[in-house]
Design a protein that fits this description.
With 244 residues, this protein is α/β, with parallel strands linked by helices. The protein has a single domain, classed as Alpha-Beta Barrel (TIM Barrel), CATH 3.20.20. The radius of gyration is 17 Å and the shape is globular. The protein binds zinc ion. Zinc ion binds next to loops.
Amino acid sequence: MDFHCHLDLYPRAKEVYREATQRNDFTWLVTTSPKAFAATSRALPASPSVLISPGLHPEIAHERAPELDLLLEQMAGVKAVGEVGLDGSPRFRTHYEVQRRIFRAVIKRSVELGGRTLSIHSRRAVKDVLADLDACPGYGTAVLHWFSGNQAELRAAIAHGCWFSIGPALFESENGRRLAGAMPHDQVVPESDGPFAKVGGRPVMPWSAPETAQCLSEVWNLPVRVTADMLASNGANLRKTTEI
Ligand SMILES: [Zn+2]
């Protein structure tokens, strides 16, 4: 399983796609813009095990802001949305207001549509992400991807009821390992975030869930097998409750 993957952006995406459909029960392909969602949905064959969702990545929010209406339109025909969110790091902070306007519009639209499952980017913006979600009850389900806040922000996200999708790259930092160690055992699902996320200089692949289970078992102090089973049942549970 992979709950956050930019599969369309790997070199030789079609081969990666084919292999993912063979190796994974479920792959959530998040796109970075509404136009990319339309192009990817056309380019890749439909598969019952691959969920392709429209998004508008905060890092390119300022360039793709004119596509917001298209995103809001596309949201009517899908159960999941992503990648969306906020990025408050120095490089993207300049366009924070645009990011926020887009993110709030997406959440509001999710409420109108009766709820959506969102794959959310929250780098250096956890507080604002949670505030925007809190302001709109009924938006659906939040899956915070590659969570990188502090322990207090993690506790706030847990209290909000967020899920967490994490992959092998999270464990490269000490903070990441500590956060993973403190995540609720029943609210974590695997992700790759490939090809952006890399380990040892190589992009993480969509079938990296066993590596995530291995890393997680060390910080949870559980056997690898038990951890892998937990991730699998969490994934099944998230999919069942959100109908994705
Ligand atoms: Zn991503």
